[in-house]
Amino acid sequence: MSQNPSFLIYSASMIVLCLNVLGLWVYSGVVRNRAQVTPNPEDIRTITKSAQLGSDPPEIQRVLRAHRNAVDNIVPFALLGLLLVLWGASPLVTGILTGVFTAARLGHSLAYLGEKQPWRTISFAVGALDTVVLVVFLAKAMITGA
User: Fold this and answer.
1) CA distance linking residue 87 with residue 81, whole number of Å
2) How confident is the model over 11-56, as pLDDT tens digits?
3) For the ranges 2-6, 65-69, 83-87, 118-122, which has the lowest average pLDDT?
4) What's phi and psi for 52, nearest 5 deg?
5) Which domain holds residue 53?
6) Residue 115 belongs to a domain with what CATH number?
7) Average pLDDT estimate for 58-62
8) Would you say 60 and 30 are in contact if contact means Cβ atoms under 8 Å apart?
9) Of 29, 64, 109, 137, which residue is 20 to 30 A from 18 by alpha carbon distance?
10) pLDDT-wise least confident of 50-54, 78-82, 104-108, 122-126
């Protein structure tokens, strides 16, 4: 597989998408630390003495929603993308589908955190449409046996 150009393209996009999810994860901790709020009593002593136990304020909730949205959309695409590569898609098709999705997801994360509309919706729609195109491509390949 390491010599398959489509697999290399897919792998590169998955690395970028994983970095996106990990970045959102780390950023949620940064925002939580800045807000000095934790949902877990045992964490109070590890943050600072001024940390409070409580529910997440809006800025933390926003980051957590962005993170959850990224995971919810990336996981199905990652599985479908792997099927695409295993099915023998060309590097061009793989590059277009994974490139568009990766760019859309990065754009969505930035727009979500930056509270930028309509860009958040546009990037979500582009990523969702790209996933639908991937499903159609795979279904057609399965039906025709190509």
Assistant:
1) 10
2) 999 999 999 999 999 999 899 888 888 877 887 777 666 677 777 8
3) 2-6
4) -120, 145
5) 5-144
6) 1.20.120.550
7) 93
8) no
9) 137
10) 50-54
Q: What is the mean pLDDT of the chain?
A: 92
Query: Residue 72: pLDDT above 90?
Result: yes
Residue type, 35: A
* DSSP conformation letters of 61-93: HHHHHHHHHHHHHHHHHHHHHHHHHHHT--HHH
| CB contact at 8 A, 20 and 70 | yes
**In this structure, are residues 130 and 108 in contact, taking their beta carbons and an 8 Å threshold?**
no
Q: Which residue has the tokens 């996981």?
A: 75
What distance lies between CA 145 and its chain's CA centroid? Answer: 31
Q: If we measure between CA atoms, which residue out of 37, 126, 36, 141 comes closest to residue 77? A: 126
Cβ contact 50:42 at 8 Å: no
Contacts of 120 (CB under 8 A, 6+ apart): 108, 111, 112
Structure tokens at 146: 């190509």
Round to whole Å and give the CA distance between 6 and 86: 9
Q: Which residue bears the tokens 């959309």?
A: 73
Number of domains observed in the structure of the chain: 1
Cα separation, 46 vs 101, in Å, equals: 38
